[in-house]
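[stage:ingest] chain + small molecule (magnesium ion)
[stage:ingest] validated
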Amino acid sequence: MTQALRGADIVARSLERLGCKHVFTLSGNHIMSLFDAALETKLDLVHVRHEATAVHMADAWGRLTGEAGVALVTGGPGHANAIGALFTALGAESPMVLLSGHAATWELGRGGFQEIRQADMAAPVAKASWTAKFAATLGRDVAEAMRIATSGRPGPVHVSLPSDLLEERVESNAIVWPDARDGSSSLPNLTAAVADAVLAAIAAAARPIIFAGPQLSGPSGRALLARLEAATKTPAVVIESPRGIADATLGAFSDLVRRADLIVLLGKALDFTTRWASGSAFDPAVRLISLDPEPALVDRAARKMGERLLVGCTVEARKAAETLTARAAQAPQRDDGWLTEARAALDSRPDAWRTIASSMPGRLHPAEVFRVLRPYLERDDDTVLICDGGEFAQWGQSMLPVRRRLINGVAGSIGSSLPFALAAKLMNPAAPVFAVLGDGTIGFHIAEFETAARRGLPFVAVLGNDARWNAESQIQLREYGKDRMHGCELLPARYDQVAAALGGHGELVARAADLPGAIERALASGKPACVNVMTESIAAPVIRR
Ligand SMILES: Cc1ncc(C[n+]2csc(CCOP(=O)(O)OP(=O)(O)O)c2C)c(N)n1
Ligand SMILES: [Mg+2]
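[stage:predict] done
[stage:export] tokens:
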């Protein structure tokens, strides 16, 4: 006699075998068997207030750890609510898996409860998307999803789990269990010859720059890039913002880019963020190297650049960076003049930012906020910074240190910061977590203060409250004129009181002198805190030298 397990048990135990610890979820009829099955495992179900939160948390987990984060939502509307957040993970090249409950297979085409073509819905915002077919192989579905999510260009993967498969009992000798190795990638590495050709091109260039993709924006990716930069004496920069080369994080980067004679795309798509390496932002003679996990993106670079593409190679970015770093010692050496100059440009900020202040009584200039916040971020190397939203967050991105940082990324989607903060705190409870966001942005997931309070996940949200969706307001001002600004105003609402009502801590700040005390009290509260700072509506910074 063998013992039978439910499909739900197979999924839960497979997740455990594959190293998953937390499942970010929101309950629903189609997945209650999975909640039940989780009781027989060590899986921690972190349940939240909106399905998009579950996805954002899995996304943050993926970016910070490099392991696939796992979100679990119910079918139909739960799945539909999760979809928007997948777009953020896709843009950020974040490894994560969305498991969605799904109408039973026997209901399909017969008007089943919450029946909708879920795999089709998720397909455009996922690396892969399918509906599981058999109960016995559900574990293999999960392992395959994790493998795809973490290999090549990382990204979100979706699998729908029909409720009848989750409830079906399978004899244990018929179950196909995944192996931990099922999760690993198999893309080839750079050959020594190609690596040396890349290094020779870098050595021969006068002003080379390495553009890395968002997949290298996590803590280990940044550390790897720092080693690659030191070994090749070539500035290595992550292009992870929808503002691309004009990201305020990167100081006067645009001025450097215009002078570059070689750009090495390291897992970075030749896309709008790189302005396709053409136009007035680039030297018309600039040459390119494309090292990318996707053959289609290497081809795109080849078609666009023609003869000016020196090397194009399908390879995993992380492995390529390691190989280049290791072989650089034997390669011809550059002097470090260009790197020194480049770093100075990347670090440059206008002197005026040291003293600039708002002239409006009861309002702070964003620079006043971040001058005060900066030392708090520098106190602990493990601190996680999250920047989300429009103009206020852009000031934060340009004035705060970039070590462990999550931004909403290439997708340009606002609203993920509170879920990101929860995931970051869960990952390392000892690390301080700060989220910088706008008053429009906080509305998307403000209910997660309740989740954070319930789960004991303290963080400090520093909210720039200018009572408007300023990023869009600024477009109206610029493009259509002062008299045509409408549809973007908000109330100067007491988001601090909302946080307190949901079990967190709230602070209201209207004078710069009160900000340090408010941050101290927020940290000391040991609760998820909202420091609601009344700010002036200022356009995002543009840094030029
Ligand atoms: C999901 C999503 N919806 C809308 C937008 C467009 N958008 C970008 S920034 C922004 C304004 C953000 O307002 P707020 O959070 O108050 O920041 P502020 O610009 O005022 O500092 C909007 C609406 C977007 N990027 N993503
Ligand atoms: Mg605002």
